[in-house]
Design a protein that fits this description.
The strands form two sheets. A seven-stranded antiparallel β-sheet has the order 3-4-5-9-8-7-6. By secondary structure, the chain is α+β, with helices and mostly antiparallel strands. It is built from seven helices and ten strands.
């Protein structure tokens, strides 16, 4: 009987230990160069963001431009949908997180500005939004992004000479209004731009804004030795 009790006690202890070392709470993420860090709840599914890069750049996957972009750009994506998809970047009832780090070319370094940081993924400033509409009209297609609403625009004061912006805005995409929270950081050397974009439909975003603030607050540059 004593042996049985002892066996039961050991079994319970093992089960409790297994529970303690089970599923982690977060995905801990660093880019390939180790310069940018953030964490996302483990309930999100990590996705291959390469299709997003092709969509945003417009590059053919077999083109030289796509090859050069792959050398300079790191990216990843996370979707909390039960059926995760990179297509949810631009419309979903569930939260979607896209993060990217760009090594800037010499030409890009010369032209980078706070407004360029605002427009790094989607058209935000009035000048770039007007250009986007003109390009859509020229192709004979209605603009995908309509009825822009600026909700927040903050210049970030960061350590060691880095600078950045955080912009929150709405776009109507199809029949739904999508809210995006965009943070972009230029490192102190002016050589790298790190971006996090969090999005979901506006109703979802209003309910869960505090959660998204926590995710955004973990998005940081890391100082490497040397």
């Amino acid at each position: 009987m004593k042996k049985a009790r002892g066996l039961i006690a050991v079994t319970v202890a093992v089960l409790m230990l297994s529970a303690c070392v089970g599923q982690p709470d977060f995905h801990y993420v660093r880019d390939k160069a180790g310069t940018t860090y953030f964490k996302v709840p483990y309930s999100f599914t990590q996705l291959n963001a390469y299709p997003i890069e092709l969509y945003l750049s417009g590059d053919h996957p077999n083109s030289e431009a796509a090859l050069l972009r792959a050398q300079r750009v790191w990216s990843t994506a996370f979707d909390q949908s039960a059926e995760p998809s990179v297509n949810h970047l631009l419309g979903s009832t569930d939260p979607f997180v896209y993060a990217t780090v760009h090594q800037l070319s010499e030409e890009q370094r010369d032209t980078i500005s706070l407004n360029r940081l605002r427009d790094f993924v989607l058209p935000v400033t009035s000048q770039v939004r007007e250009l986007y509409v003109q390009q859509a009209v020229a192709t004979g297609q209605p603009p995908m992004f309509r009825n822009f609403e600026l909700l927040k625009d903050e210049v970030l004061t960061l350590d060691d000479g880095a600078r950045g912006v955080r912009v929150r805005f709405n776009y109507q995409i199809g029949n739904d209004v999508q809210t995006f929270d965009h943070t972009a950081i230029l490192d102190e050397k002016g050589a790298t731009v790190s971006v996090m974009l969090i999005g979901c439909q506006s109703i979802c975003f209003r309910k869960r804004a505090a959660e998204f603030d926590k995710i955004e607050s973990t998005f940081k540059l890391l100082r490497l030795p040397g």
